[in-house]
Design goal:
By secondary structure, the chain is α/β, with parallel strands linked by helices. It has two domains: 80 residues, 3-Layer(aba) Sandwich (Rossmann fold); 55 residues, no CATH class. The chain is built from seven helices and seven strands; from the N terminus they run βαβαβαβαβααββα. It has a four-stranded parallel β-sheet, sandwiched between helices. It has a three-stranded antiparallel β-sheet with strand order 5-6-7. Strand 1, helix 1 and strand 2 form a beta-alpha-beta unit. The relative contact order is 0.15. The model has no long low-confidence stretch (mean pLDDT 95).
Length: 160
């Protein structure tokens, strides 16, 4: 398993969905009834990720690939996925997906988006990416340290 994983997160895993997308995984997020989650996972050949034991058991009984996510925080959940599904815990912008809409992102020149970003951001950053779907613009801002701290912790836990 690897980058080709197609995932489906249930309504309890919204934050984890965003992380998986940043890590480059095609991850759908749905807040729907269990039956619909199972149908979508089966139809789209996705692995259903859930913290709901009953949903997990029902999905498995229907022959759907499912994984019961464990962990109290995002680092623990990511470590669990890294150990069991071989999720890679590195952000590579050339593989990352939009955390908001799951579309691919691409590198964009600062000159092309200068009027769409804050002045201070333009002053201090040179690398930017834009979502091919929703147009959201990304850069490695002040949040980047927190992202890296979480990934470092997840890697440490995955080795245990």
């Amino acid at each position: 398993m690897g980058w080709e994983l197609r995932l489906l997160c249930d309504g309890m895993l919204g934050r984890l969905t965003r992380w998986l997308r940043m890590l480059g995984y095609d991850t759908k997020y749905l807040k729907v009834l269990d039956d619909e989650l199972i149908e979508v996972a089966e139809r789209e050949h996705r692995i259903l990720l859930t913290r709901d034991l009953m949903l997990y058991k029902r999905a498995r009984a229907h022959g759907v690939r499912a994984f019961l996510v464990k962990g109290e925080n995002e680092a623990e959940k990511l470590a669990d996925l890294a150990k069991n599904l071989n999720i890679k815990l590195d952000i590579d912008p050339s593989r990352s997906r939009c955390p908001k809409c799951n579309s691919e992102i691409k590198s964009v020149r600062k000159e092309d988006i200068i009027n769409k970003i804050p002045e201070m951001t333009a002053r201090f950053h040179e690398e930017f990416w834009i979502c091919k779907g929703c147009g959201q613009i990304y850069w490695r801002g002040s949040h980047w340290k927190r992202i890296m701290k979480t990934l470092i912790e997840a890697k440490r836990l995955a080795k245990e």
